């Protein structure tokens, strides 16, 4: 029996191995993506689904759950603090992320120029803020922007003739300080991503374009931007998602008053406060679901706006 | 003609250098200032003009930190957490990235889109059930509980797929198959050496992500002995009257090792990137 099998195998060796090659690839494919999807199922999908269920229940984490329909959503949507936190998140997000995308592309473009030297040094220093933690940044900026009149930030703006600001308790002071720390920490990260993108563009393209008589600006518009687009899309997407999830910076920046003041309360802080300070898992889950919808909407809009870049030309993002 | 263009571009570089130098100073100043404050008594903070040179309280301030939080325990917890999670994510992502880049299997596109979608799902969506799950497992106040969440890293797969499909030629894989290499052998001896630069990039991203993440660690780790650095540092800021010298001393000493790791890792990172671009 075995012999027969062996013979058959040997005879149709070329054909069989080709067929089994495909099957092998298929099995390998599934096998190699399996670890991710197992992890995804347990700590990604299941909690997400549980959250959506929880959004329609009243629950404090200990007793019985009670189905309450949409009332968690009505409670959250009628809470002025929710809307304030959403407003804060959007304002801080825009001020913190939009400028760094533009600055990041410009810096990456400079660092990729053949004539610029010491690029290693600049790359390392510009990227360095990213390796600090959000907590560290928030603490350092928290001292820099302390509410004291003698805060270094007040000294700096005093040089330009401005009056001291109470950074942690004023509507715009807190937002500006937090947006600045977001900008400071992430601009180098985006620069490195763009730089990787620029380096993936073949030099031959630029040479060919130069031979065809295209100048530097034309090369930037017709070669660099279109080929960089996947990287720009990625960063816009990540910035949008990240900005809407802001939590550590304001929480640590404001310290003990983080959950009792509203100047810089973000949506995630609102959610956290509901769940872990007030013990209301139901409304917190409703907020989480609302946040998901907001994030998907914002990410879709921003990605759509950005994908117009280069192809339909002219669009400031 | 060639000479002329060269001169032109050289003269044009001065503003570029100025911008780059300004950006570098902007990036480095908070590090420097943090060091200055870590060496000054808290009162130095109130002086006008501001104190911008180091003082002599480096040791004293750090001693206060050690009296307030379990600093070295937190440091060890953080390093352990980051190392294990990073290694695991690199393996998971490169395997899946390889599969998505080079194999065809039914449902591949669907699964990949699913991964991209998980990037939109905010980690906060699952926060409460995750907290509940971890508490039911008895993993609250443990590194296990703090780490398990970070194994889910869709960005890693995205980066790996991108890198592998661009830098690992199909011909090379075909040739290896003709030589009788198994798929895992191809992954191990062909793909892995080529994607070292991507490993460096993703490694740095994951390591710093876990090192710096706050919300989850803050939620799960409540007991001081289980604190990671971030949670421990944040707790320094909760006192009624914060000693700025002590506070920034804690931040400084928590940041120094990371800078050292980064500078060492970074050399390798940059050299392998240049290697990759020469090929």
Automatic annotation (TrEMBL), chain A:
Pfam families, A to Z: BPD_transp_1 (PF00528)
Cell location: Cell membrane
Residues that span the membrane, as ranges: 29-56, 90-115, 127-145, 176-196, 281-305
InterPro entries cross-referenced by the UniProt entry: ABC_transporter_permease, MetI-like, MetI-like_sf
CDD domains: TM_PBP2 (cd06261)
Residue ranges of domain ABC transmembrane type-1 in the record: 86-302
Family statement drawn from the similarity comment of this UniProt entry: Belongs to the binding-protein-dependent transport system permease family.
Protein name, entry field: Sugar ABC transporter permease
Protein species of origin: Guptibacillus hwajinpoensis
From TrEMBL, chain B:
Localization per Swiss-Prot or TrEMBL: Cell membrane
PROSITE patterns named in the record: ABC_TM1
Residues that span the membrane, as ranges: 12-35, 74-98, 110-132, 138-159, 186-211, 244-265
Annotated keywords: Cell membrane, Membrane, Transmembrane, Transmembrane helix, Transport
Entry's Gene Ontology BP terms: transmembrane transport
UniProt keyword Membrane, yes or no: yes
Domain of life: Bacteria
Location, primary (coarse class): membrane
Topology in membrane: Multi-pass membrane protein
Cellular component terms (Gene Ontology): plasma membrane
Residues of the ABC transmembrane type-1 domain: 75-265
PANTHER family: ABC TRANSPORTER PERMEASE PROTEIN MG189-RELATED-RELATED, SN-GLYCEROL-3-PHOSPHATE TRANSPORT SYSTEM PERMEASE PROTEIN UGPE
Family named by the database record: Belongs to the binding-protein-dependent transport system permease family.
UniProt-recorded name of the protein: Carbohydrate ABC transporter permease
